[in-house]
């Protein structure tokens, strides 16, 4: 879906703000695409060219061409111009697809008041009655109109309707590194230990969560406040219990769509089919031995001598028992690119780009990746939630792998929690 970028802002605002805005745009994009997929609609993603939209969806013999625009503020004077632009671009893109294609214009913001959504709907009815429209926000509120799109309408969350103010902190903060780790702690109480390596227990306060997760009380308190303010936490029974988990997971999925840093590597001396697991197992044993030494004798991680490691993506899915995609070069999470660590594993980055034997992934969310990892026969493996997040954004049949994990692990877990 095409996104609008204010060129002047891109050049004048700090890069971290631009990065946060792009992350929020991806969240809405992922939420919208997943909305169609879960309804059984066929979603065709495209690269923008010659006026074509990024996404075309189809259902019941009809094709819908969707344009999505996002505003940081849900004000009428901000959203009406964006809706106008989305309408024009959707109409142009639909003409390039076929004469019968239906243009759909969608606008999104972290919070859209009901009154503004009604005004946007009326604006579209008055000026573009032949275009489907949609308005959505981060609180789960959605209003669509035209061509059968009303099925995607959704009320605002109960907490938001009660007037709890929407937190101004960005969703990118909700999915910061340590917050992702604490999310895994809260999510993982009923997910088997073999799939998710988190402390087990019941948590009644941010302080208890902080102690269990090994983070500062201030970090846990901020995290709990934001979960609560966005309607994802139910504290009525005295426990920190997640609610609206499906929406939370989908937002997490959208926020994780940043491109990971990947480095192709090749074996220095090629061995048999079990060479990778043997190398990682040996590295894990070496790292365990280093970490078991008295504190004064341990080398500092700051100098990069002992980066943490974990098997990732499709290879991890195989080891966890949920493999679905085969024939893809394995991925290894490494805390930092370190020549000594690569040499110990038996890899080299020299001349490996043409036919890499594996890929090193350097995660941005290091604590969430490595703290939640699990052990299988002496090998550290990414947890099932991390594999789902990573596979969702991988071009090599990643969506199919993610769907398998969703159906077999995450969806049943959510259903159990709702009973």
What would you say this structure looks like, in words?
Helix content is 44%, strand content 16%. It has 16 helices and 15 strands. Helix 3 (76-97) crosses helix 4. Helix 4 links the parallel strand 4 and strand 5. Residues 1-23, 158-172 and 296-304 have low confidence and may be disordered. It is globular and about 70 Å long. Strands 1-2-3-4-5-6 form a six-stranded mixed β-sheet, sandwiched between helices. It has a five-stranded mixed β-sheet with strand order 10-11-13-9-12, sandwiched between helices. The protein has a two-stranded antiparallel ribbon with strand order 7-8. It has 419 residues and is of the alpha+beta class. The protein has helices at residues 7-12, 15-38, 76-97, 114-127, 158-161, 171-174, 177-187, 206-213, 217-229, 245-255, 275-291, 313-320, 339-345, 366-371, 384-392, 398-418; strands at 42-45, 55-59, 62-70, 102-109, 132-137, 142-145, 233-234, 241-242, 261-267, 309-312, 331-334, 347-348, 358-362, 374-376, 379-381.
């Amino acid at each position: 879906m095409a996104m609008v970028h204010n060129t002047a802002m891109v050049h004048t605002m700090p890069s971290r703000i631009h990065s946060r805005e792009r992350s929020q745009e991806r969240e809405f994009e992922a939420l919208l695409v997943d909305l169609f997929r879960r309804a059984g609609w066929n979603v065709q993603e495209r690269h923008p060219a010659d006026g074509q939209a990024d996404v075309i969806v189809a259902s019941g013999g009809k094709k819908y061409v969707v344009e999505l625009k996002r505003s940081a503020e849900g004000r009428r004077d901000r959203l009406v111009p964006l809706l106008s632009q989305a309408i024009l671009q959707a109409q142009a893109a639909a003409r390039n697809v076929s004469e019968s294609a239906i243009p759909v214009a969608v606008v999104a913001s972290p919070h859209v008041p009901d009154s503004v959504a009604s005004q946007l709907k009326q604006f579209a009815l008055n000026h573009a009655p032949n275009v489907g429209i949609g308005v959505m926000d981060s609180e789960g509120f959605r209003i669509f109109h035209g061509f059968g799109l009303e099925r995607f309408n959704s009320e605002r969350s109960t907490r938001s309707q009660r007037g709890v103010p929407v937190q101004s902190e960005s969703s990118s903060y909700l999915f910061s590194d340590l917050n992702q780790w604490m999310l895994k702690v809260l999510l993982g109480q009923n997910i088997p230990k073999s799939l998710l390596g988190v402390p087990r227990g019941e948590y009644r306060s941010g302080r208890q969560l902080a102690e269990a997760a090994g983070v500062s009380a201030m970090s846990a308190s901020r995290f709990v406040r934001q979960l609560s303010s966005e309607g994802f936490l139910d504290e009525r029974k005295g426990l920190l219990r997640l609610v609206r988990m499906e929406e939370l997971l989908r937002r997490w999925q959208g926020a994780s769509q940043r491109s990971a840093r990947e480095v192709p590597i090749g074996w220095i001396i090629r061995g048999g089919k079990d060479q990778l697991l043997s190398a990682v197992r040996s590295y894990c044993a070496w790292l365990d031995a280093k970490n078991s030494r008295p504190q004064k004798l341990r080398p500092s991680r700051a100098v990069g001598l002992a980066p943490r490691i974990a098997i990732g993506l499709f290879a991890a899915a195989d080891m966890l028992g949920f493999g679905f995609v085969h024939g893809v070069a394995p991925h290894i999470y490494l805390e930092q690119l370190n020549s000594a660590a690569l040499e110990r594993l038996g890899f080299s980055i020299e001349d490996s780009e043409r036919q890499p034997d594996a890929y090193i992934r350097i995660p941005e969310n290091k604590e969430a990746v490595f703290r939640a990892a699990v052990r299988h026969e002496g090998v550290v493996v990414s947890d099932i939630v991390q594999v789902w997040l990573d596979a969702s954004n991988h071009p090599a049949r990643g969506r199919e792998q993610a769907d398998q994990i969703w159906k077999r692990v995450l969806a049943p877990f959510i259903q159990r929690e709702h009973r």
